DNA sequence: CCCCGACAAAATGTGCACATTCTCTGGATT
DNA sequence: AATCCAGAGAATGTGCACATTTTGTCGGGG
């Protein structure tokens, strides 16, 4: 009975994390078309792991609201409504208003120096025309603000919102324009330096409304629907079989 | 070889939800001492289900930050530091400041009427001396505020914070005092009615700081550590075996 | 007397096989 | 001709057995 072969001892403790990050990234940067089905068996083949492991990762992603899981019907890449996306931006805006008010008592030269340094980075990226870096740094600016408050809970909540809003940027945001105008970030910092909270809050709200209004009404063309292609850098070549002409 | 008995076909679709709710409640209302180990096998016995089902529920609770899961070491009832609890209250306070500002444009007679009705309920509970209802209604007041904004994301975030802060109330909150002074809630509503946002925000902040300062430094006596006893209403009697004199 | 290493027991993690549910296709009936 | 039902195929859900890791204990050495 125990004709059991030794079985590959690849119980990497960080494999789960890698798969989780890979799927989260693919969903967030738009490599996978909204509505694409994430079949457990396909993903298990692509990543070369057992189905149970994929299953666990998928459920975790579902709990994080990064993908959508329907009982007995599997996981799908979510297809958020424009209204839902605006709701996330609005939540971010409301939260940041509170953050700015809470930040005032903790605002010192060190924090302002860090913000100035970050603004310099943002301007450099904008001048280089590096859109990818601009998007990343633009988000990091808001994280810098909330981190300065020194409350881990707040940082975690805002980080979550930010990661989910960045999902849709690639779909709903017109590529021709830069995401966050650096000047708007700079204006917020100046208001903070002058300890004018009301103005900082107003600038922040205006900033977010600016971003919200720029969102396109209809989603852009679907990027890709082939799972294997989306995860190519992570998939061993041999596991990418000829896909069925479904 | 297939001497497999039919096996109880109890694949209730709502069993998971019931177990999840039971454990969440037990953790949140303090039936289980902070630090208590939640062994999968014990819980499986108590609830009369397979270990895998408990496992899934436990991991979900961990993702929701209601319990603490350490890889290869199992799940425990979290033992938050006073600092962590204050951080949650602070996050709630910062968030509510933003909520109050966002609420102003949406504030109409209907919302004010709902708030007034709620205040009446709170006062009634306080006069009855019904502490349990007071705690519940006090939390519901803040939910009412955020729900009035009409943003599902904000409501979800605040609901999560509230459920986690209510965990610790039973541990760190002195039982002799009422949780939220109804008058403080009433004052916030009055400030809103006068459309004086600055005052409403200040009152709200003062209110939360009031609650934070009342927290006891040292946790109270541990209520219970016996899993079977904590889940008694959910556990079939026969599964409650004589506990090992560990 | 204290500390360290190894062994044993128990708890968690994982893969596999089976059960259940859903989807899709093909055909018969109204 | 359109609709509905039935059956096959495929995908998800679940329990079980085994592997791995951790923890508590005992014995020997410093």
From TrEMBL, chains A, B:
| Keyword Disulfide bond appears in the UniProt entry | no
Name the PROSITE patterns for this protein. HTH_GNTR
Q: Respond yes or no to whether keyword tRNA processing is given for this record.
A: no
Enumerate the spans annotated as HTH gntR-type domain.
Answer: 13-80
The record's section on InterPro entries has:
GntR_C, TF_FadR/GntR_C, Tscrpt_reg_HTH_GntR, WH-like_DNA-bd_sf, WH_DNA-bd_sf
Q: Which residues form a coiled coil?
A: none
Q: Which Pfam families match?
A: FCD, GntR
- Key words, A-Z: DNA-binding, Transcription, Transcription regulation
What is the name listed in the Swiss-Prot or TrEMBL entry for this protein? GntR family transcriptional regulator
Question: What species was this sequence derived from?
Answer: Rhodoplanes tepidamans (Rhodoplanes cryptolactis)
